[in-house]
């Protein structure tokens, strides 16, 4: 393929918007034996390695608490730190853009790319641009966006959707990846070598050769960032392959789209996260590649740098005193790897770029609970608490899940449910009525059904035994024996 040729990368699979609610999507996923085997093998391997890496640090609990405090301090004064960041980025030669929502962010990025005269961009993995649907927007505008992270490349070539925060192609095994490379690489670049095997080394080499021409040709790079340092205007990306370094240094124009919650106050704060993030994500002591850039320089790197600060529901989440702790997330994915629900259902069932436990609390806050899929996410959990135990910034995910369930119920539960709650509240406010009801229930206990009637309630009691009714109410027993 010559350097002047341009092709359009394959489009993604079905969009998350309009997907079925979690129970329906999860039921289908659980029936996929290959998917479950892929997920079980990958998540168990990662979480076992993480446990060993974390055990090496005697002060892990202190680091976890420090990360929590840094994030909470930043969120409490987010306006101050964002303005400080803007000043520092501008002073270093960069340009800051503010995007209220996904549509505005996509318009800004598209305008910046068009201004360069280019029709293609290379991307380092960015969940913020997945959140906004940037690739699809650019494609509609005639601009090709090429993912360069290996897992993201697999997802893009397979016309798929990411299913994990750290390993987007975790639902694919090596044989499936080889088939995707052989069938799709040649349609928009250098084809995979004939006779490609499914060994990790050969698959990685095929991806390296395929991407190399795009790295060397691209004039525009698009990135996200793991952290932004308000003190200096520095952005930080941590990754394992080196593709990020290529995207961040070779293009003439660099555009970074970053959620406003990714800011940290000072350089010193990075020390904590550069210890906890790699151990929690890839189970490494440190990331193979930690790239940092501050504005522009005449001698090296991009000549033009643009930072797009994305809100897209984050200030709404910030206003919720319980829910805002979700904004502490550093996208390590440790919670996904220990979650029994994610392990069986996979990431696609969540209908969001943010799957797993963190997605179950973050997505409903960013998108609201108007749709069926978003309203169902707070219930996509057994509340076992494993996610909280491994979170490196101590997000109490079970607490937020219960909090959001309450919001969903308040927003408009089933009419029968609302009537039952209202009636129960009235009975509890009238002790005489409650006592009479208890006595009546005890005297008629022989007539009580073992399963509750009605289609909705019956389904709930099919897997649960109703408690046995005692021969007399507790209040009557107490009066006879203690008065």
TrEMBL record:
Residues 84-309 form the LUD domain. Signal peptide: none annotated. Residues 326-395 form the 4Fe-4S ferredoxin-type domain. Residues 405-481 form the Lactate utilization protein B C-terminal domain. The keyword Disulfide bond does not apply. Pfam families: Fer4_8 (PF13183), LUD_dom (PF02589), LutB_C (PF11870). Keywords: 4Fe-4S, Electron transport, Iron, Iron-sulfur, Metal-binding, Repeat, Transport. The keyword 4Fe-4S applies. This is Lactate utilization protein B. It comes from Streptomyces bikiniensis.
């Amino acid at each position: 393929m010559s350097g002047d040729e341009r092709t359009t990368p394959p489009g993604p699979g079905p969009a998350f918007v309009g997907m079925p609610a979690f129970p329906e999507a999860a039921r289908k996923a659980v029936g996929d034996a290959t998917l479950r085997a892929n997920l079980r093998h990958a998540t168990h391997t990662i979480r076992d390695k993480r446990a060993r890496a974390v055990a090496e640090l005697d002060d892990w609990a202190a680091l976890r608490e420090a990360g929590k405090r840094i994030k909470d301090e930043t969120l409490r004064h987010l306006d101050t730190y964002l303005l400080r960041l803007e000043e520092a980025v501008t002073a270093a030669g960069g340009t800051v853009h503010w995007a209220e929502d996904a549509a505005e962010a996509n318009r800004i990025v598209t305008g910046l790319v068009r201004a360069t005269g280019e029709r293609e961009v290379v991307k380092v993995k960015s969940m913020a641009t997945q959140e906004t649907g940037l690739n699809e927007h650019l494609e509609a505008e005639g601009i090709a966006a090429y993912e360069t992270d290996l897992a993201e490349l697999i997802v893009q070539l397979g016309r798929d959707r990411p299913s994990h925060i750290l390993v987007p192609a975790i639902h694919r095994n090596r044989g499936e990846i080889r088939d995707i490379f052989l069938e799709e690489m040649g349609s928009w670049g250098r084809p995979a070598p004939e006779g490609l095997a499914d060994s990790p080394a050969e698959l990685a080499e095929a991806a390296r050769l395929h991407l190399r021409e795009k790295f060397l040709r691209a004039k525009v790079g698009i990135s996200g960032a793991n952290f932004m340092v308000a003190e200096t205007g520095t952005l930080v990306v941590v990754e394992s392959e080196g593709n990020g370094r290529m995207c961040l240094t070779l293009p003439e124009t660099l555009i970074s789209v970053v959620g406003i919650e990714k800011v940290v106050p000072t350089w010193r704060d990075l020390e904590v996260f550069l210890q906890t993030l790699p151990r929690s994500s890839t189970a490494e002591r440190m990331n193979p590649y930690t790239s940092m850039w501050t504005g522009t320089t005449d001698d090296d790197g991009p000549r033009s740098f643009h930072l797009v600060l994305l809100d897209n529901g984050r200030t709404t989440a910030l206003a919720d005193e319980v829910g805002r702790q979700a904004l502490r997330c550093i996208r390590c994915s440790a919670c996904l790897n220990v979650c029994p629900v994610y392990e069986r259902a996979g990431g696609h069932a969540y209908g969001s770029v943010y799957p797993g436990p963190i997605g179950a609390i973050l997505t409903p806050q960013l998108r609201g609970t108007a749709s069926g899929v978003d309203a169902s996410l707070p219930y996509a959990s057994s509340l076992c608490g494993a996610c909280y135990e491994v979170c490196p910034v101590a997000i109490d995910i079970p607490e937020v899940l219960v909090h959001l369930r309450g919001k969903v119920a308040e927003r408009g539960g089933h009419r029968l449910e609302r009537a039952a709650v209202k009636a129960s509240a009235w009975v509890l406010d009238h002790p005489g009525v409650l006592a009479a009801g208890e006595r009546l229930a005890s005297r008629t206990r022989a007539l009580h059904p073992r399963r509750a009637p009605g289609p909705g309630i019956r389904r709930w009691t099919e897997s649960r035994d109703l408690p046995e009714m005692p021969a007399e109410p507790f209040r009557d027993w107490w009066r006879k024996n203690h008065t």
